[in-house]
Amino acid sequence: MKEKESGSIMLWIAFVCVSLLLILSLLHISGLISELELSIINKAKNVPVIGVIFNLFPQPQELSKIQIINAKDLHRKLIKSENDIRELKNNISKLTAEIRKKNSQINLLKHQLGITASESIQEATTKTTTTANYREIAKIIQNVSADAAVDIMMNLDDNEIINILSSLNEKKAAEIISAFEPTKAAKLMRMMTK
Questions:
Q1: Alpha-carbon gap, residue 159 to 134, rounded angstroms
Q2: What is the pLDDT of residues 41-82, one digit of tens each?
Q3: Does 68 lie in the same domain as 20?
Q4: Average of pLDDT values for 88-94?
């Protein structure tokens, strides 16, 4: 019976030791008992069976206060850098959106200027062509009598008559104006002064 009791006591002691080792292993892995663990490990290394088990685990290294402070400082800097990067990304997104908006405004203005410029070119070309045409007509009218010129011009609108008269020399323009009825001549002279 004593053998059974001593065997079960040894079994309980082994169970407690294994349980203690498992608990210490978990605490070691989690890093919760670094200072306490070091003192236990140093004492347990001297126990023959348990020392072999503790030697299987890598020994934790103690950090000095300066290393801890440096690690905390590096962690703060890392967090600040991450925040700065987030902020810069937001700024880049805002600036990109603003650039797109400005580019669309520029393209719209280019389009508007293109239309305006093409209209201006077309108008200038038409005006130049029209002015050249009036000069050609004025050369023909120059060689016609004033009465015949009035008969021809009565089929034109007043602006066309003014443009032709403006292309003639003063003497011929005066002859033709005097050949119109007085009310029409007065109207044309008023239009020429504007």
A1: 11
A2: 677 667 666 666 666 666 556 666 777 777 788 888 888 889
A3: no
A4: 81
The answer to whether residues 54 and 75 belong to one domain is no
> How distant is the alpha carbon of residue 99 from its chain centre?
4
In-domain check, residue 138: no
- % residues pLDDT > 70 (the chain): 68
Each residue's pLDDT tens digit, 102-123? 888 877 876 676 666 556 555 6
d(CA 133, CA 113): 29
Residue 119: predicted pLDDT: 61
Axis crossing angle, helix 48-56 with helix 2-30, rounded to the nearest 10: 30
Residue where a domain terminates, one of 83, 100, 126 = 126
Distances (CA, A) of 26 to 11, 53, 55, 192: 22, 14, 15, 109
User: 3-class secondary structure for 27-84?
Assistant: HHHHCCCHHHHHHHHHHHCCCHHHHHHHHHCCCCCCCCHHHHHHHHHHHHHHHHHHHH
- Which structural domain range is residue 35 located in? 1-61
Nearest Cα to Cα of residue 20 among 7, 33, 8: 33
What is the pLDDT averaged over residues 164-170? 88
Domains in the chain: how many in total? 3
